[in-house]
Recover the amino acids of this structure.
């Protein structure tokens, strides 16, 4: 099985990233109502709600992470992820089956 990673972006528009730690679980949900990105995927955390989006720009995708556009057709309406790295430039998560 191939491991896939994604970057969370937009954290500062919600709760920031200071509370995020490796091992935390996130839920991904397609955002069909997003006017700016038809492949937008929201990132949610239990008890908080939305904390950001899956990065979908060459400026925000870190390392070998998949963009939201590359992930969009590979996941259902929702998917699960787990935080792997919390870096000064962003948060990288592993896509879970």
């Amino acid at each position: 099985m191939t491991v896939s990673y994604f970057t969370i972006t937009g954290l500062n528009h919600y709760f920031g990233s200071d509370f995020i730690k490796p091992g935390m679980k996130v839920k991904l949900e397609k955002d069909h109502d997003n006017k700016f990105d038809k492949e937008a995927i929201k990132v949610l955390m239990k008890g908080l709600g939305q904390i950001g989006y899956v990065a979908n720009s060459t400026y925000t995708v870190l390392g070998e992470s998949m963009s939201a556009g590359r992930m969009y057709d590979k996941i259902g309406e929702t998917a699960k992820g787990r935080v792997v790295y919390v870096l000064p430039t962003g948060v990288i998560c592993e896509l879970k089956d």
Notes: The chain is about 5% helix and 40% strand. The chain has a mean pLDDT of 93. Helices lie at 68-71. The radius of gyration is 12 Å.
